[in-house]
Amino acid sequence: MGLLDILLGRTKPVAPDLDQLFALPSAAVTLQAAVGFTPTGTGAVCFATVEGAAFEQTHREVQALLDADADRAGPPVELCRDGYGYSWLVSRRSPDQLPQLVNDLHAVNSSMEINGFGPQLLCSLAGFTDDAGRGLALVYLYKRGTFYPFAPLAGAGERRDNALELQVKSVLASDLRIEQDLGRWFPVWGAPGL
Predict the structure, then answer these.
(1) ∠ at Cα 165 (160, 168), nearest 5°?
(2) Which residues span the domain enclosing 73?
(3) How many domains does the structure of the chain reveal?
(4) Which Pfam families match (predicted)?
């Protein structure tokens, strides 16, 4: 970053750091102890919809890579689209396999990045739930290298539990790199796993 950038107030964008995903299992222990949320076993990678043979090849590579895991029941990764036009590659594991789920999310992100689809990557998430049936996602913003909690209210349309999100933010502040700009805590309505 040069002097002109400093004078004009330009900042250098944060580089993605996919290794931040590996902090999720320890954060899950803190989350369970502090607020009673446990993993659902579902995680997903969201990206701007991509068409074409290059993406199909990448999708096949990811499936082949994750298919080698004998602990998985069902397809290694599913491709689905939400109502907003975004695509999701979804991985499902048993709730006690969060480290393996994180490996899946890392592998999907890395494969897409290596094959030139990094600019289309938006976020990754891991789903959690509590005994009352409330859903929560820890969302990793690919382009920021940070996490934020997203807690949709069940049966309330598109409304969030902001108090829970702020509580989770404070609980996980020492476990995860939390996104400090609340304006970047984008809702992920209809995300798989919530």
Answers:
(1) 155
(2) 3-184
(3) 1
(4) PspAB
Judge whether 190 lies within some domain: no
Query: Would residue 113 count as lying in a domain?
Result: yes
pTM (predicted TM-score): 0.86
Residue 194 lies in a domain: no
User: What is the DSSP secondary-structure string of 88-149?
Assistant: EEEEE--TT-HHHHHHHHHHHHHHHIIIIIGGGEEEEEEEEE-TT--EEEEEEETTTTEEEE
| 99-126 mean pLDDT | 91
Q: Is residue 20 part of a domain?
A: yes
Average pLDDT over residues 110-123: 88
Residue 142's closest CA among 166, 108, 165, 115? 108
